[in-house]
Design brief:
Length: about 325
């Protein structure tokens, strides 16, 4: 496939293994990614992970503010195929069908479930047994195109967004490379999505990051790990904000909602119908720490039998 001319469109870490493999095995003409961002107090310019890979490999980078209005650069490259993976903007119809092999997407869900942004977070939040990757033809509607191939992996109790994002990025890379020959040879499947099975999800918002311990302990467990480590779920205790990470299921017992019922190398916190165990914590303005190190600088009596809550001044 070394002579396959590719325009690749992607932005976050998830897309990095996919781009790296395409650089090795195909001719990547152009990388399209989201515009640079200004971060921190020093207003430092930050490249997307995908731009960093492109620059490292001396590949031209295109960063339109609005791809729907600014896409001629892509057409001018005259690629054989457009491949996208978590790009972050809706691709205009003008780009979907002009290439020899059309435009395909590496989507991090088992379509038709979890169309839209944040599919990994939402699948973990809902406690799905399996997560997966779908290779699909792109259509003018979001994640609506015919499916070509799928592959899945189990979501284990110790998994969170970070671990599944890494696993699925590798799975997506491998499935794409296994699928491309059939696309080139026109032997691939085109599987229509069943509309009755479609679920459309929304992007994360700040309000969702606040933990509600009144929910069932399994739901709280899934919620926290779906946001671990970025952007991170939080709650309040002693009028301070804490992000909670590295969570496991605790005991199936009933206690006062939000109360810290035990401290070992974890904080055990009561929710509805049971408890969760939190192994890492981050006080606002401080670094993330495991619980053992955290209590080298904090008194256990300030936490034990006290209540986490979903608001300040509790």
């Amino acid at each position: 496939m070394k002579d396959l001319k590719v325009v690749f469109m992607g932005t976050p870490d998830f897309a990095v293994p996919i781009l790296e493999k395409l650089i090795t095995d195909t001719e990547v003409l152009l990388v399209v990614t989201q515009p640079d961002k200004v971060r921190g107090r020093n207003n430092k310019i930050s490249f997307s992970p995908i731009k960093e890979i492109a620059v490292k490999n001396n590949i031209e980078v295109f960063q339109p503010e609005k791809i729907k209005q600014d896409y001629q650069t892509i057409i001018d490259k005259n690629p054989d195929i457009i491949i996208t993976a978590a790009y972050g903007q809706i691709i205009p119809e003008e780009l979907l069908f002009f290439t020899k092999y059309k435009a395909i997407n590496v989507h991090a869900s088992l379509l038709p479930k979890y169309r839209g942004g944040a599919p990994i977070n939402r699948a973990i939040e809902n406690g799905e047994k399996y997560l997966g990757i779908t290779i699909m033809y792109m259509d003018k509607l979001m994640d609506n195109g015919d499916m070509i191939s799928q592959r899945k992996i189990e979501l284990k109790e110790e998994d969170n967004f970070d671990t599944m994002n890494k696993k699925l990025s590798i799975l997506g890379r491998d499935l794409l490379m296994d699928t491309l020959p059939s696309i080139i040879n026109s032997t691939n499947e085109r599987i229509k999505q069943k509309e009755e099975d479609v679920t459309i999800i929304k992007l994360l918002n700040k309000e969702e990051l606040l933990i509600d311990f009144n929910n069932d302990f399994v739901s709280v467990f899934n919620k926290i790990r779906s946001l671990d480590s970025v952007p991170g779920a939080y709650a309040f205790l002693n009028n301070k904000k804490y992000k909670l990470y590295d969570v496991r299921l605790g005991k199936n017992v009933i206690d006062e909602i939000g109360k810290v019922v035990d401290i070992k190398d974890y904080l055990e916190i009561a929710c509805k119908n049971g408890t969760i165990k939190v192994y890492s914590i981050q006080e606002e303005g401080k670094k993330k720490m495991n619980i053992k190190d955290f209590f080298n600088g904090h008194k256990k009596e300030d936490f034990l039998y006290k209540r986490f809550n979903n608001e300040e001044n509790n």
